[in-house]
Amino acid sequence: MKKYVYIILIIIFPLLSVAQNENVGTSGFSFLKVNYSARAAAMGNAYTGLSNDADAVFFNPAGLVQVKSPQASLTYMSYLIGINCGSATFVYPSNDKTTFAVFTKGLSATEDRTIADEMGQFDGIDGTFGISDFIFGLSAARYLFDMLDIGVNAKFIQETLDDNSASAVIFDAGLMHQSTNKYLKIGVAIKNIGKQLTYYTDNEYEENIPTTLTVGFSYHPREQLYATADIYKPLDNDIFGRFGVEYQVHSLLALRAGYKTNASDWATGGNNDIYSGISFGAGFDLSKYNLMMDYAIVSYGDLGFVNQISVKYFFK
C-alpha cells in the first residue's frame, strides 16, 4: 500500500510546480480562500500536514481521524476593512477508524453606497451596500491503514453582493500520510472542486471556483514542538509557501509563529510592507474546563492587522 501513497505524491508535485498562471486572480467566490482557525493562522496557515483538531475541515479533512473524542470549535475573525467572519464546527468520531463533522462559516460587511452626478463626481450617499458569504459543509474521514487516512468535504456555498446572489456545490478531498520517519506526516488536499448552481445575473455567467492544491508537512520531534510547511498552489494564482512553528512553553501555554511567502500580494509601497505575511499567536490550555482558547494576529503590512480568536470545547 505504501507505494500507492508515493504514486499519488509523484502525480501531484508536477501540478504544484506550475508556478505561473495566466488567469491570476480571475476566479469568483474568492472568500473560499479565507480560512478560519486562530491556531492555524498563527502558524502561517501551514496546517495541511498537521490538521489534528476540528479545524481540519478547513485545511485537510483527512486529519479528522486524529480527533479521538467529540469536539466543537468556534472562531471569530476581524478581517480587513470592517469585514466580520466566523465559523462553527462539530466533530464526532463514530469509532476508531471513522470520523464525521459538520461545519459552517461566513462573512459579512456593509458599506455606504455612493452616488455620482452626471460629471462622475461624488454626489452623496444613498443607503448601504452589503456583502455576505455562507458555507455549510459535511465531512467524513477514514483510517485506511497505519500509513494513510483519507477525508472528504461536501459544501454548499452562497455569496450575496447587494441584491444579487450566486450559489454552488463544491467538494474537498485530502489524505494524511504517516511517513517512515515517525516524526513526519505529509498531508495533501485539493479543495473547491464543484459546480455553480445559481448565478448573479440572468445571463448565467459561470464563475471560476478557486480550486487549490496543497502539500503540507508536519514535523513533531518533541512533545512540545511542531514545525510545519505547506506548498500552496491556487489554480488561478502563483505557487507560494507557508511556514509555521508551535512550541509548548508550559502545560497551559503554547506560543506560535508563521510566515507566508506571498506577502507581496498586499504590498502598497508603505513602510510596513516588510512585515506582511508574518503571524504570531498563542494557545491557552484550559483542560480543567474542557476548553482550549487560541489567539492569532496576522500582519498585512500597511493594510493593517487581522485578529482571530478560537474556542474549542472537548466532550469527555
What does this structure look like?
This protein is mainly beta and 316 residues long. It has one domain (2-107, 128-314): Outer membrane protein transport protein (OMPP1/FadL/TodX) (Porin). It has helices at 2-16, 38-42; strands at residues 71-78, 84-93, 98-116, 122-145, 148-161, 164-178, 184-198, 212-222, 225-234, 240-250, 253-260, 278-286, 291-299, 305-314. Strands 1-2-3-4-5-6-7-8-9-10-11-12-13-14 form a 14-stranded antiparallel β-barrel. Strand 9 and strand 10 form a beta hairpin. The two termini are 35 Å apart. Residues 1-25 have low confidence and may be disordered.
Query: Main beta sheet: strand number and arrangement?
Result: 14 strands, antiparallel, barrel
Kindly state the percentage of residues in helix: under 10%
- Calculate the mean pLDDT score and round it: 85
Question: Tell me, what's the shape?
Answer: globular
Helix/sheet category: mainly beta
CATH architecture classification: Beta Barrel
The proportion of strand residues reads over 45%
Number of DSSP E strands = 14
| Rg measurement, Å | 20 Å
H/I helix tally: 2
Number of domains: 1
CATH class: Mainly Beta
Termini separation (Å)? 35 Å
Say what the CATH topology is.
Answer: Porin
Arrangement of strands in the largest sheet: 1-2-3-4-5-6-7-8-9-10-11-12-13-14
Low-confidence stretches: 1-25
- What is the CATH superfamily? Outer membrane protein transport protein (OMPP1/FadL/TodX)
Order of helices and strands: HHEEEEEEEEEEEEEE
